[in-house]
Specification:
With 230 residues, this protein is mostly helical. The protein has helices at 18-21, 75-83, 88-102, 108-122, 126-139, 144-156, 160-173, 178-190, 194-207, 214-226. It is flat and about 55 Å long. This is Tetratricopeptide repeat protein.
């Protein structure tokens, strides 16, 4: 089983191939590095002249009047929007923003380890990929997305039990992670527990009603979990 990382290397944004990227094993991220910009001080001769003694106060920046800012909504707010999205395109965009927000606290060192895990998996070195992700979790054990990522690597190595254990930790951090539930459904299917796979899939539908290909997946799991109606 091959797992490809599927998050943009620079911005950590999920791609738009929703019907392929969200079915089966969802790919996880090749995470980009940080860019440090230098700051050059202005020479003293370039300093602007002092304002007149009775200059009028400067206007407040746009969007700041009366203390009103333009704060980016957090993951819980975006998840609420995903639940009520009116179109598949809008839902896909919201999921991209959620995934981007999950990665904002990943450090450059951890990103390097995840990138190396990507390379390991591309070369079918599943054990090495898991070791890289083990190290990443030692550095940042509180990041839900890293547990979900290692679960995918474990599933690629036919360790469905380990994948389920990691997903349990991921969902403990965020029980509304729709991708973790989707991967859990896959992992339970690999274990042959179609009842558990069905239950995990119900969480996916509850959190992301416009999930691509949901009707086909629902029917497939229904047959595997309960058989054909008599």
């Amino acid at each position: 089983m091959t797992v490809r990382f599927h998050i943009d290397a620079t911005w950590g944004r999920v791609g738009n191939g929703e019907t392929r990227g969200l079915r089966g094993l969802l790919s996880v991220a090749c995470l980009g590095g940080a860019i440090v910009a230098g700051i050059v001080p202005c020479p003293a001769s370039a300093a602007p002249p002092a304002p007149p003694a009775h200059a009028a106060p400067s206007a407040a920046p746009a969007g700041k009047e009366s203390g009103k800012g333009t704060k980016e909504p957090g993951i819980p707010e975006l998840q609420d929007e995903l639940l009520h999205a009116k179109s598949k395109r809008a839902a896909s965009d919201l999921l991209s923003r959620i995934e981007q927000a999950r990665q904002k606290d990943i450090t450059p060192t951890t990103r390097l380890l995840v990138r190396r895990a990507q390379s390991d998996l591309a070369e079918q070195k599943v054990g090495d990929a898991q070791e890289d992700l083990n190290d990443a979790l030692v550095l940042q054990p509180g990041l839900e997305i890293l547990w979900r990522t290692r679960a995918q690597a474990r599933l690629a190595g036919a360790d469905a039990n380990g994948a389920v254990a990691d997903l349990g930790v991921a969902l403990h951090h965020d029980e509304r992670d729709v991708l973790a539930w989707q991967i859990l459904s896959d992992a339970e299917g690999v274990r042959g527990d179609w009842g558990a796979a069905w239950k995990a899939w119900q969480h996916v539908l509850a959190l992301y009603p416009l999930f691509p290909g949901a009707a086909h997946q629902t029917e497939d799991l229904r047959l595997k979990a309960f058989g054909r109606p008599t």
